[in-house]
Amino acid sequence: MATIFHSFPLLMAPPAGGPQGGPASIVPTLVTFGLVFLIFYFLIIRPQNKRQKETKAMLSALRKGDRVVTIGGIRGTIQSMKDDSVVLKVDTSSSIEFSRSAISNVLDKRAATKPQKGKEGDDESSEEE
After folding, report:
1. Of 43-52, 53-62, 94-103, 116-125, where does mean pLDDT reach its minimum?
2. Percent of the chain with pLDDT over 90
3. What distance in Å separates the CA atoms of residue 106 and residue 60, rounded to the nearest whole number?
4. Between residues 1 and 31, the one the model is more confident about
5. Which residues pair with 76 in a beta bridge?
6. Domain of 84: which CATH number?
7. Are 80 and 95 in contact (CB under 8 A)?
8. 69 belongs to a structural domain
9. How far lies 54's CA from each of 7, 23, 27, 50, 102, in Å?
10. Considering 42, 63, 65, 72, which has the largest number of Cβ atoms within 10 A of its Cβ?
11. What is the domain range of residue 64?
12. What does the H/E/C string look like for the chain?
């Protein structure tokens, strides 16, 4: 076992009579760092920025009557809204106020889609006749 550890310096030594190493170039190191940065940008930073934009757009598009899910898993319908908070109607007799950023997903955009469905249905029925 001791002989293995004594042979490490011999294995790391440059070959005898071979060319000595010159000054190391910094270019390969910079290229490597550049490639690592590009990989991080395309795999981590860019998708995260895209997700943040989508979340911001979803939160700004919330309307009264939308059915949503909070980050805690509570499902409810938006009863009223303020600048930074949302009141969700959870049951017929209970409502809870949440921070707007606590909304994780919109299940059903009732306020935006109900009137349009009625109009589209009327248009489609008149076109079919």
Report:
1. 116-125
2. 55
3. 12
4. 31
5. 68
6. 2.30.30.30
7. no
8. yes
9. 59, 50, 39, 6, 15
10. 65
11. 50-128
12. CHHHHHHHHHHHCCCCCCCCCCCCCCHHHHHHHHHHHHHHHHHHHHHHHHHHHHHHHHHHCCCCCCEEEECCCCEEEEEEECCCEEEEECCCCCEEEEEHHHEEEEEECHHHHHHHHHHHHHHHHHHHC
Question: Looking at the domain assignment, is residue 72 inside a domain?
Answer: yes
Cβ atoms within 10 Å, residue 98: 18
**Residue 43: inside a domain, yes or no?**
no
Residue 41 lies in a domain: no
For residue 61 the two structure tokens come to 């598009």
Tokens at 113, concatenated: 């889609």
Tokens of 66: 């939308």
Apex 74 CA angle, 94 and 91, nearest 5: 25
Strand-pairing partners, residue 78, are 88
Q: How many CB atoms lie within 10 A of CB 9?
A: 8
Number of domains in the chain: 1
